[in-house]
Design goal:
Elements lengths: L2 H13 L2 H8 L3 H15 L4 E4 L4 E4 L1 H29 L3 E7 L4 H15 L3 E7 L2 H10 L4 E4 L9 E16 L21 E5 H13 L5 E6 L2 H9 L4 E6 L9 E5 L6 E9 L6 H13 L1
Parallel strand pairs: 3-4, 3-5, 7-8, 7-9
Antiparallel strand pairs: 1-2, 5-11, 6-9, 6-10, 6-11
Helix pairs in contact: 1-2, 1-4
């Protein structure tokens, strides 16, 4: 089966109908229909049900299996092309990484920006997504490297290369008066009754810590990203609880303090899919990360 047919099948599913897929691919619709028919004959299964009136398609369970496998096959070909380009040109090609949203800014600041200065022919594709989507992207071959602040799903399918602790910081506006400024460290009890805004990546762990300590926090908001969590603190509306990376700095009008509790941290991990070859660019970046982390 021509690999291009698999790419076309992916486009059909993504577009939701044959007409739109044909337009995007610049292929005549009858030719696209013939490709689908040939694939169904090859696999002996109905992959798509075409509702002619609405011009929409319905993907069967068998079709979804092929869709996911086709994405992986196409990603492998793309990876091969990147690696061949890298081998031919030295360190060149594309580095694809899936990251927890709270980690992207510091990851760019501390690693990617400096790596790019040394390797100007590398381009980057960053996906700032939640843990479930990181897991899917890595397994589908969309990304080669995952940087997460919580365990990836299907953990047995991944190899964790690096693990670092990031303490949970208590971030609030200096014009608010929720805490005793004379204390060097806060206690968990100091957080009771205060409007707390949590970054989703650390929310479960923080709430479990509170539960184990019989602390009953007042949660104002749980946000997907670190940026939106901090916005509550910037607007003096609440106290943000987010992972704080090494050397991370906040605006002068924000205070960053820590709770005196050994459990108040998250593990940042850098992972790859087990037994899957990496591109030359990814290997080179992992070497750089190991030397500079």
């Amino acid at each position: 089966m021509n690999l291009e047919h698999y790419r076309n099948f992916i486009t059909i599913v993504d577009c939701g109908n044959l007409t739109a897929a044909a337009e995007e691919l610049h292929i005549a619709q009858p030719a696209l229909t013939a490709q689908v028919k040939a694939m169904q004959e090859k696999y002996g299964a109905t992959l798509l049900r075409i509702h002619r009136g609405a011009r929409n398609i319905e993907v069967t369970n068998e079709g979804m299996i092929l869709y996911n496998k086709a994405k992986y096959l196409c990603a492998i070909e793309d990876s091969a092309q990147r690696e061949i380009t890298s081998a031919r040109n030295g360190v060149a090609g594309k580095l694809t990484i899936s990251l927890s949203p709270s980690m992207s800014v510091l990851f760019i600041q501390n690693f990617l920006s400096k790596f790019s200065l040394q390797n100007p022919d590398v381009e980057y594709e960053l996906h700032e997504v939640n843990i479930a989507e990181q897991t899917r992207q890595l397994l589908d071959g969309i990304s080669e490297i995952g940087v997460a602040n919580a365990p990836l799903l299907q953990a047995s399918r991944f190899e964790t290369l690096f693990t670092r602790k990031e303490n949970l910081g208590i971030i609030y506006h200096k014009d608010t008066h929720w805490f005793n400024e004379n204390k060097v460290y806060l206690d968990l009890e100091d957080l009771e009754g205060v409007p707390l805004c949590l970054s989703r990546g650390c929310s479960t762990q923080f709430l479990n810590i509170c539960s184990d300590s019989h602390i009953y926090p007042r949660v104002l908001c749980i946000s997907t990203t670190k940026l939106s969590t901090l916005m509550w603190a910037r607007q003096k509306a609440g106290v943000a609880i987010v992972p704080v990376g090494t050397g991370e700095q906040f605006e002068d009008y924000l205070h960053c303090r820590f709770v005196q509790d050994d459990r108040m941290f998250v593990n940042k991990t850098l992972s790859i899919v087990k037994d899957r070859p990496l591109s030359a660019v990814a290997k080179n970046f992992l070497k750089y990360y190991d030397e500079h982390s």
